[in-house]
Design a protein that fits this description.
With 296 residues, the protein is of the alpha+beta class. The strands form five sheets. It has a four-stranded antiparallel beta sheet with strand order 3-4-5-6, covered by helices on one side. A three-stranded antiparallel beta sheet has the order 9-10-11. Strands 1-2 form a two-stranded antiparallel ribbon. Strand 5 and strand 6 form a beta hairpin. The radius of gyration is 41 Å and the shape is elongated. The N terminus and C terminus are likely disordered. Bound molecules: iron/sulfur cluster. Iron/sulfur cluster (SF4) binds next to loops.
Length: 296
């Protein structure tokens, strides 16, 4: 067993108990550590001319094994080191080159850790022309049905029940979607809901979802709402609720409506617009009307 075996155990000669040997730190071999010129020549042999810089350090790797590091001067390789490992056999004086390689130092400029392409895309990255690969083991989906052998009959029957898709959302998938929707902009905690006079649950434009999600979510079908065609929670709300209203102030100024094709016509709209007869009388006047005086 080598003396520098990590965690090696041997029985004690006197007690019989097992003792754990501490790993021995390799010492710098004088001959291998002094072979800087040999190491430099080996590095220059494989490197581009002029790209081997200063000798940085000699690191003992094991018994009579030393790695010599040289600065790499290649553009784009800041912090990298040409590393040449030299060694010598036991009781031999001759030092030989074991290997030459380019290694990153602590402050080396390195490429980011490689990520498989299918882990790089995020929700929202899929464009109109893109197709995602099928996830065979999607943790959010479960089989929609099981074949019993009579395949045609099974499939038709399941389609009749509104099922029949090969896979459907499982509990985890529904749970994740519900959490995401509820904590998003169309849940209960946002400015538009705080200012709403009533929740979606009492709105005529609220279309409940199917299945268990209908207990909490539906789709907004109000084109005047910023949430039109989106999933909203029962306790979301907006100013376009079907049953809420605003009071028209009693002193709201009347609004003159002018038909451009009939300059003589004028209709006053507002609380102090007066009776139909008065309006008719106004519209019959030949006096030109200005919008500023129309409400009086
Ligand atoms: S109009 Fe407003 S209150 Fe009504 S369902 Fe849509 S978001 Fe909810």
């Amino acid at each position: 067993v080598s003396e520098d075996t990590v965690g090696a155990t041997t029985p004690s000669a006197t007690t019989g108990a097992k003792k754990t040997r501490r790993p021995r730190k390799p010492t710098l071999d004088a001959a291998a550590g002094g072979a800087v010129d040999l190491a430099r020549a080996a590095a220059e042999d494989v490197a581009e001319p002029g790209s081997v810089g200063d000798h940085l350090e000699a690191t003992p790797e094991g018994d009579r094994i030393v790695s010599h590091s040289f600065a790499c001067l290649l553009p784009g390789y800041r912090g990298w080191r040409w590393t040449v490992t030299v060694t010598r056999a036991s009781r031999a004086k001759n030092v030989t080159v074991n290997e030459v390689c380019l290694l990153p130092g602590e402050d080396a400029l390195r490429a980011p850790v490689w990520l498989p392409w299918n882990q790089r895309i995020a929700p929202g990255d899929v464009g109109p022309q893109d197709t995602l690969p099928r996830k065979e083991d999607d943790p959010l989906l479960d089989p929609g049905y099981e074949w019993t052998g009579d395949e045609d009959a099974d499939e038709v029957a399941l389609w009749e029940l509104g099922l029949g898709r090969e896979r459907v959302l499982n509990l985890l998938g529904r749970d994740e979607a519900a959490t995401r929707w509820y904590e998003g902009d169309r849940g209960p905690r946002n400015e538009i809901t705080e200012n709403a006079k009533a929740p979606c649950s009492t709105c005529g434009y609220f279309l409940p979802l199917a299945g268990s999600l209908r207990q909490l979510f539906g789709v907004c079908a109000n084109e005047w709402s910023p949430e039109d065609a989106r999933v909203v929670s029962l306790d979301h709300g907006c100013g376009a609720h079907s049953e809420t209203d605003v009071e028209v102030p009693a002193d709201a100024p009347a609004v003159p409506l002018i038909d451009d094709l009939d300059p003589a016509s004028l209709e006053i709209v507002g609380p102090d617009a007066g009776s139909d007869e008065e309006s008719d009388a106004d519209t019959r006047t030949d006096t030109p009307v200005s919008p500023a005086g129309a409400g009086r």
